[in-house]
């Protein structure tokens, strides 16, 4: 078995354990929080008989451990329960809202990588000269301002005062959502050859994705910079210079790749954190995403939905980490070839 | 005789804020074509900065103050250190203390080698580079050159990496090789083997070497002439046989007695500093700087 595959399987096994742990934790926490979900769901005018009936139907009168048993039984049948708020299966709600969030986060993540890494690389290359000062100032501003503030600032500037981008939503009024394939409007539109829908979706993505990405871009730039500065002090960079490698090649290749290894792991966490941060941005831009749904159901103590949302976000964290580990093991030959060396 | 390296009254200082730390106090030395010259001293004496100056790198950093003359393969490196850019890796190359850490850990030996062959913007095709690298590795007696090229530095032993480093240093047929404590990080036996190999190859190719070391026994084996440097001053200069037979400067004597002996005698008791170490430069007969000889 290749070392990369073994690492992957190991991580996968750990991930399943973590998910079980998270499910237990969030299941009990959601139920310990005060408030009667049945009463909230039925509203102030419901009779006691109605409330009792709903509590009975949802097993809310059983001991909490027994309730967890019911939950696990349903889960094994692929059933995440039913939302008391939307009255639909939680799995169906997640399938509706999650792609919107994931699309937003993926675009923000792409911006984080595509802008943050080069910015940090340039800052390190021109350390203590003006490109570095500019990059550092921008990064600090980007990191220190919360995503929802960026949302409001961007909305005011580029959608209200200077209306080049739409204020909110995923598509303009009058444009139909493309037929559902992945749930990503941009991809679905392309798959169906609806070019104008694609551009409309991208057009709507730019502001919220930027708002979400900015602090990540700053963080990425700072991490990349410090990691590269560290690498620049290593003897192999001294060797590269003594042998006349072009400074640009050193910055793009010989110092960049070794620096990426420690940076990526933290970037993965940053990326996953964007999922959790997305809810404020989704609120500002009226984005029909999972994070907004998550806040909604927590306010209503919608037990099954809370557990469902948290599990999906936890799973995304784990998947992101898995992907990052995979990329790191590909970049770092020490991990990729660990086994071959042991044999030799 | 032409000198590939000529240094005259070279001073070096580092400015930090308002203070200047003086590192070299006007040293003069030269390395003739095909000659192997050692620069010997303790750590902090200014050996390695001399090599960095010879590469033209140090004087381009901010806060570096230099005066005097340093001329390498015909370039005036006080006035035009940037002239060295296309020469590095070609007419002047370098070998390091620890070969394994001097080779980039995330690139294959072959990729690094190709970059060395292409440095200074030279056009070399991938096939040509591989061909030349294979030949260079065979020259340093690496058993399976093709496999070495496809390996990462951490997959090879320190000795193998040092051979790779020597092959890289000599692949572009340099006129001057700067060997900065070569192989000090290796086992003594491996260090001796790789030094022997380097010695054979440079002798065969007629490459000049500036050999920077604190290890006198290695210098004795290797060098034609020796400069002893102490706290930024050259204190003694002579042919290797002269210097070892008749060390005249108090610091050279101290350095020689500091070398561990095979037949015991305990650790020598050496002062960290003595006023006698500040004695003026002693030049053995027939070893003066070229400008002094002609003057």
From TrEMBL, chain A:
Predominant location category: membrane
Keyword Translocase: no
Keywords recorded for this protein, A-Z: Cell membrane, Membrane, Transmembrane, Transmembrane helix, Transport
Gene Ontology molecular function terms on file: dipeptide transmembrane transporter activity
Transmembrane intervals: 12-33, 104-124, 136-162, 201-224, 254-280, 305-331
Matches recorded under CDD domains: TM_PBP2
Subcellular location: Cell membrane
Location of the ABC transmembrane type-1 domain: 98-328
InterPro entries: BPD_transp_1_N, MetI-like, MetI-like_sf
Cellular component terms per the entry's GO annotation: plasma membrane
Its membrane topology: Multi-pass membrane protein
Family: Belongs to the binding-protein-dependent transport system permease family.
Protein name: Peptide ABC transporter
Source organism of this protein record: Marinibacterium profundimaris
From TrEMBL, chain B:
GO molecular function annotation: ATP binding; ATP hydrolysis activity
GO biological-process terms attached to the record: peptide transport; transmembrane transport
Pfam families cross-referenced by the UniProt entry: ABC_tran, oligo_HPY
GO CC annotations on file: plasma membrane
Superkingdom of source: Bacteria
Topology relative to the membrane: Peripheral membrane protein
InterPro entries attached to this UniProt entry: AAA+_ATPase (IPR003593), ABC_Ni/Peptide_Import (IPR050388), ABC_transporter-like_ATP-bd (IPR003439), Oligopep_ABC_C (IPR013563), P-loop_NTPase (IPR027417)
Keywords associated with the record: ATP-binding, Cell membrane, Membrane, Nucleotide-binding, Transport
Record carries keyword Membrane: yes
Protein's cellular compartments: Cell inner membrane
Domain ABC transporter: 5-256
PANTHER family: DIPEPTIDE TRANSPORT ATP-BINDING PROTEIN DPPD, OLIGOPEPTIDE TRANSPORT ATP-BINDING PROTEIN APPD
Protein family: Belongs to the ABC transporter superfamily.
Protein name: Peptide ABC transporter ATPase
Provenance organism: Marinibacterium profundimaris
């Amino acid at each position: 078995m290749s070392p990369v595959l073994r690492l992957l399987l190991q991580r996968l096994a750990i991930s399943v354990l973590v998910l079980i742990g998270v499910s237990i934790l969030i299941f009990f926490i959601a139920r310990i929080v005060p408030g009667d979900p049945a009463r909230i769901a039925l509203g102030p005018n419901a009779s006691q008989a109605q409330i009792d009936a709903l509590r009975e139907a949802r097993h809310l009168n059983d001991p909490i451990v027994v309730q967890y048993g019911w939950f696990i039984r349903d889960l094994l049948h692929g059933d995440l329960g039913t939302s008391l708020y939307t009255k639909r299966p939680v799995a169906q709600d997640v399938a509706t809202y999650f792609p919107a969030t994931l699309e937003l986060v993926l675009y923000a993540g792409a911006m984080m990588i595509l802008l943050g890494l080069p910015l940090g690389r340039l800052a390190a290359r021109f350390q203590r000269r003006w490109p570095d000062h500019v990059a550092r100032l921008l990064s600090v501003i980007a990191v220190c301002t919360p995503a929802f503030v960026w949302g409001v600032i961007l909305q005011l500037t580029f959608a209200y005062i200077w209306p080049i981008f739409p204020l909110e939503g995923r598509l303009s009024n009058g444009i139909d959502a493309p037929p559902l394939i992945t749930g990503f409007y941009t991809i679905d539109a392309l798959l169906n050859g609806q070019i104008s829908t694609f551009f409309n979706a991208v057009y709507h993505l730019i502001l919220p994705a930027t708002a979400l990405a900015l602090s990540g871009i700053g963080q990425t730039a700072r991490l990349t910079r410090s990691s590269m500065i560290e690498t620049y002090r290593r003897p192999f960079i001294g060797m590269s210079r003594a042998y006349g490698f072009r400074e640009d090649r050193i910055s793009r290749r010989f110092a960049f790749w070794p620096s990426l290894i420690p940076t990526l792991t933290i970037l993965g966490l940053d990326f996953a954190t964007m999922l959790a941060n997305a809810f404020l941005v989704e609120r500002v831009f009226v984005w029909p995403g999972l994070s907004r749904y998550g806040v909604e159901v927590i306010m209503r103590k919608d037990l099954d939905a809370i557990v469902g949302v948290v599990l999906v976000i936890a799973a995304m964290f784990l998947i992101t980490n898995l992907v990052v580990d995979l990329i790191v093991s590909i970049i770092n030959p020490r991990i990729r070839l660990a086994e071959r060396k042991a044999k030799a | 005789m032409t000198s590939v390296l000529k240094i005259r009254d070279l001073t070096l200082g580092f400015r930090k804020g308002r203070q200047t730390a003086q590192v070299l106090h006007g040293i003069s030395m030269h390395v003739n074509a095909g000659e192997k010259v050692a620069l010997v001293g303790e750590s902090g004496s200014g050996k390695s900065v001399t090599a960095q100056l010879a590469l033209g790198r140090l004087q381009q950093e901010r806060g570096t103050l230099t005066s005097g003359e340093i001329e390498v393969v015909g370039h005036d490196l006080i006035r035009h250190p940037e002239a060295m850019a296309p020469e590095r890796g070609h007419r002047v190359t370098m070998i390091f203390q620890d070969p394994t850490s001097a080779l980039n850990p995330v690139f294959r030996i072959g990729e690094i080698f190709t970059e060395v062959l292409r440095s200074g913007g030279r056009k070399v095709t991938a096939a040509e580079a591989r061909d030349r690298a294979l030949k260079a590795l065979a020259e340093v007696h690496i058993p399976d050159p093709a496999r070495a090229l496809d390996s990462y530095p951490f997959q090879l032993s320190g000795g193998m990496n040092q051979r790779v480093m020597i092959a890289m240093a000599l692949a572009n047929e340099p006129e001057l090789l700067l060997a900065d404590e070569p192989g000090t990080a290796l086992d003594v036996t491996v260090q001796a083997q790789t030094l022997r190999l380097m010695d054979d190859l440079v002798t065969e190719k007629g490459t000049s070497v500036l050999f920077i070391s604190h290890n006198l026994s290695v210098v004795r084996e290797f060098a034609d002439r020796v400069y002893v440097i102490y706290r930024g001053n050259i204190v003694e200069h002579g042919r290797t046989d002269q210097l070892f037979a008749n060390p005249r400067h108090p610091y050279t004597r101290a350095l020689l007695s500091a070398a561990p002996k095979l037949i015991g005698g305990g650790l020598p008791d050496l002062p960290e500093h003595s006023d006698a170490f500040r004695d003026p430069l002693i030049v053995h007969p027939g070893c003066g700087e070229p400008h002094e000889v002609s003057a």
